[in-house]
Amino acid sequence: MEVSWLDIVVRLGLALLIGGMIGFEREFKNRPAGTKTHILVCMGACVIGLIQQEIALSSLAQAQAFPQLAGVIRSDEARLIAQVVSGVGFLGAGTIIVTKRSVVGLTTAASIWAVAGLGIACGMGYYPIAVSGTVGLLMALLLINRLLRHVPMSKKIEIKYLHKTETQEAIQTYFEKNKIKVIDVNFSMEPKEEGRIYTNLYTVDLPHHLNYPRVIEDISTLEGILKIRTTQL
Predict the structure, then answer these.
(1) What is the residue extent of each domain of the chain?
(2) What pLDDT is attached to residue 12?
């Protein structure tokens, strides 16, 4: 079956739409790769898919036209596609920023890789895969964070402070005022020249309106606080 001009236009148009939707979501969130990058990746992968299909159809036509060459002509539809999947990985790696404390850009790198897969599906004419894959990818990008906001995330907050009754009371008051649930507390004490240094390790669940950076910033302003940090469970 020959790929018509209409098939080519429809597939490239669908790739443009898919890449544009996913890229817009990334650009809206001010991520390293936005609309244009995702469109180019998706349409580029679609073109590769179209070329691969044309190669396969051409090989089949030659085998039918020259039966004596049927055992010689080979067409592996997965070979060219496999190069796209691996090649896009290097492009996605360019969006990842690694610092001493965090890694940023992994989601965008994954979205570029996934968009390439959707582009291949468009190019090969696998419309159900392309459409359902797009819906799933957009749901993952748009809804997962919202769902996670309603799931309690337990972490440990380590607070080191100079022993003062006022400091202990201020920490407890802050937790109660902001409805921070304290699941567990571990204490340790170290004598110093300036006084006793206490280290409290709190396991807490935060309410929806709070995040850990804000809690750390608020508690760090209390009198007597020497050090505060979070550790993942």
Answers:
(1) 5-148, 154-232
(2) 92
